[in-house]
């Protein structure tokens, strides 16, 4: 297992370096002079020059790259142009809100998807299965930037049951979590169904039935547990989709997380903050994928020896 | 379900092509006195904040969505197939370089890199297509690379090589055609993904800019009128969901039809 761990870690380092390089390159993809673009066309030349010096844009490219990498490793991602707040501090302040939303969305998704997937697999080919499959495909097709406002119209505007935006109480979390978790629920339900169907064909399930185990016991105690391996992996791999979805959901529901910070900083052309948010989300995603791979190695020992 | 999907996609293509004939109003013409009016017998989907007919704008938006989908999927599938087949066929350092590029781009979750690229390049339809194509080829390249790794060892490829066929000929005539069924399925599902991504970027204000009618931009403006004019949100969103559902149904059906492992199986 230790060898597998080191091999996986070694594979992650070049990916992280590539991610950091791409994020560094972002600021240089800005058409024309990045400092001018940040301050606007009407900015005075001395202000533009001052910003160029402050961001180190007047230095050779390699030196800028070296400084960026050193800073990223130390957690120093520069300061916000608009608020002068350190970028890493701005991100960390908003991290709990994003984690809270992501965790709630995943709970919603798992709570809906697993029972739906089981019911569809057990009743394969029946009306229940068709309904569950249609629900899953519909869930994948409905964009969260439409589902969110629809939920707000019904449950906040028409019925007045839940607050339409903001963060604070559990009630504030309900609509954003459902909006963000719906697509994940649809994907997970499809995977649960497919994985459980594969397991139900295995001889050990038939053997359990032959030994007198009830159909429910054969499904829940035997097949379901083994079918969870790919489902757990998918949950880990879908974390990235949840983080990206959070950018949109946080914008819709004025949820004060990293996603909303990213969109606001794009609006203010606060590029150090944009770079910081993108780098943070991408590195978190890489870390989550690494954890998922390691967990898969624990759950299924064959993976470690491949 | 694939027939339902095909019918939806066909209807959307026809609506996009015949939009100006079907819509009784110009998508850009304004009736400010009637702004935010709800659906009625004259304006079936109601009017927006500038008094423009939402039905006409939804039809015009279909053209934008399908155009973005087609260009993004076309570019992504072509580039991805070319790079994936080169990586898989030649192996070695070329494969290493392409595979590392794939790994790095896959390290960015979904739309995030597209958001970042459009944020620095500036919001426009061209930049949306560019950003989505830059990240879109990766999925095709990975898929094709895997298939080519298997195909290059098969007898008919070795026979072509033994008969003296050149590498480009082997790739174009023998190897790449075997990957086309999988690429077709991915492209069909990718159309839905590209349409969703364009709408998401436009919704965030990073995509198609007004006054060009885009479903995402329409939803973005609808956000400000959830209380007084929910029809601004309902119809463009419904259009996105139905069209994406159509492509997903069609892609699922194609996968089942083209995959020998699932053909004829009910799950």
What does this structure look like?
- The complex is a heterodimer of chains A (306) and B (267).
- By secondary structure, chain A is mainly alpha-helical.
- Helix content of chain A is 78%, strand content 0%.
- The longest helix of chain A has 36 residues, at 87-122.
- The model of chain A has no long low-confidence stretch (mean pLDDT 90).
- Chain B has 267 residues and is mainly alpha-helical.
- Chain B has a single domain (2-266), classed as MetI-like fold (Orthogonal Bundle).
- Chain B is built from 10 helices and no strands.
- In chain B, helix 3 (54-90) packs antiparallel against helix 4.
- The longest helix of chain B has 37 residues, at 54-90.
- Chain B is elongated.
- At the A-B interface, helix 1, helix 6, helix 7, helix 8 and helix 11 of A face helix 4, helix 5, helix 8, helix 9 and helix 10 of B.
Write the layout of secondary structure elements.
The complex is a heterodimer of chains A (306) and B (267).
Chain A (H helix, E strand, L loop, with lengths): L1 H27 L5 H6 L5 H11 L5 H14 L12 H36 L4 H15 L2 H15 L11 H31 L2 H8 L4 H23 L1 H14 L5 H10 L3 H29 L7
Helix pairs in contact in A: 1-4, 1-13, 5-6, 5-8, 5-11, 5-13, 6-8, 7-8, 7-11, 8-10, 8-11, 9-10, 10-13, 11-12, 11-13, 12-13
Chain B lengths: L1 H16 L1 H4 L31 H37 L1 H15 L5 H10 L3 H27 L3 H8 L4 H37 L11 H8 L8 H28 L9
Helix pairs in contact in B: 1-3, 1-10, 3-4, 3-6, 3-8, 3-10, 4-6, 5-6, 6-8, 7-8, 8-9, 8-10, 9-10
Gist of the model:
Helix content of chain A is 78%, strand content 0%. With 306 residues, chain A is an all-alpha fold.
Of all protein chain pairs, which has the greatest interface, and how many residues does each chain bring to it?
A-B, 54 and 49 residues
Overall strand count of chain B: 0
**Which regions of chain B are unreliable across 5 or more consecutive residues at pLDDT < 50?**
none
Shape of chain A: flat
Oligomer: heterodimer
Main sheet overview of chain B: none
Order of helices and strands of chain A: HHHHHHHHHHHHH
CATH topology of chain B: MetI-like fold
- Which bin fits the share of residues in helices of chain B? over 70%
């Amino acid at each position: 297992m230790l060898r597998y761990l080191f091999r996986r870690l070694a594979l992650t380092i070049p990916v992280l370096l590539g991610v950091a390089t791409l994020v560094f390159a972002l600021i240089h993809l800005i058409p024309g002079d990045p400092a001018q673009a940040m301050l606007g066309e009407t900015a005075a030349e001395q202000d533009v020059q001052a910003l160029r010096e402050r961001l180190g844009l007047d230095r050779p490219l390699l030196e800028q790259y070296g400084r960026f990498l050193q800073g990223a490793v130390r957690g120093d991602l520069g300061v916000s142009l608009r608020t002068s707040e350190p970028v890493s501090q701005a991100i960390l302040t908003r991290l709990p809100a994003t984690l809270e939303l992501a965790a709630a969305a995943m709970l919603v998704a798992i709570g809906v998807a697993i029972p739906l997937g089981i019911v569809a697999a057990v009743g394969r080919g029946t009306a229940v299965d068709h309904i569950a499959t249609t629900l899953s495909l519909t869930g994948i097709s409905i964009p969260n930037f439409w589902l969110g406002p629809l939920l707000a119209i019904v449950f906040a505007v028409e019925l007045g049951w839940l607050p339409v935006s903001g963060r604070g109480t559990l009630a504030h979390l309900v609509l954003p979590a459902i909006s963000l978790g719906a697509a994940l629920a649809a994907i997970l339900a499809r995977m649960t169904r497919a994985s459980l169907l594969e397991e139900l064909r295995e001889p050990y399930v038939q053997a359990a039935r032959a030994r007198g185990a009830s159909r429910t016991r054969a499904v829940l105690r035997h097949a379901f547990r083994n079918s969870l391996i790919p489902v757990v992996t998918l949950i880990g791999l879908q974390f990235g989709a949840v983080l990206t979805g959070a950018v949109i959901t946080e914008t819709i529901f004025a949820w004060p997380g990293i996603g909303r910070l990213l969109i606001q900083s794009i609006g203010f052309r606060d590029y150090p903050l944009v770079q910081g948010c993108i780098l943070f989300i991408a590195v978190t995603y890489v870390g989550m994928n690494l954890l998922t791979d390691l967990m898969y190695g624990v759950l299924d020992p064959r993976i470690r020896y491949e | 379900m694939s027939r339902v999907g095909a019918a939806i996609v066909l209807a959307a293509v026809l609506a996009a092509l015949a939009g100006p004939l079907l819509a009784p109003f110009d998508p850009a013409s304004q009736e400010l006195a009637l702004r935010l009016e709800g659906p009625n017998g004259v304006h079936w989907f109601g009017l927006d904040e500038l008094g423009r007919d939402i039905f006409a704008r939804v039809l015009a938006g279909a053209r934008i969505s399908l155009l973005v989908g087609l260009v993004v999927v076309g570019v992504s599938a072509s580039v991805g197939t070319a790079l994936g087949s080169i990586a898989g066929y030649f192996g070695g350092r070329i494969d290493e370089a392409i595979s590392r590029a794939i790994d790095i781009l896959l390290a960015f979750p979904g739309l995030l890199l597209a958001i970042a690229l459009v944020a620095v390049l500036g919001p426009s339809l061209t930049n949306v297509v560019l950003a989505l194509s830059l990240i879109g080829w990766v999925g095709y390249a990975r898929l094709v690379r895997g298939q080519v790794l298997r195909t290059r060892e098969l007898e008919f490829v070795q026979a072509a090589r033994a008969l003296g066929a050149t590498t480009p000929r082997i790739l174009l005539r023998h190897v790449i055609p075997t990957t086309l069924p999988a690429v077709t399925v991915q492209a069909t599902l990718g159309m839905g993904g590209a349409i969703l991504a364009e709408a998401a970027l436009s919704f965030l204000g990073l995509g198609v800019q007004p006054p060009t009618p885009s479903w995402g931009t329409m939803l973005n403006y609808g956000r400000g009128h959830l209380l007084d004019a929910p029809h601004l949100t309902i119809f463009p969103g419904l259009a996105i969901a139905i069209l994406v559902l159509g492509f997903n149904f069609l892609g699922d059906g194609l996968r089942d039809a083209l995959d020998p492992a699932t053909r004829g199986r009910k799950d």
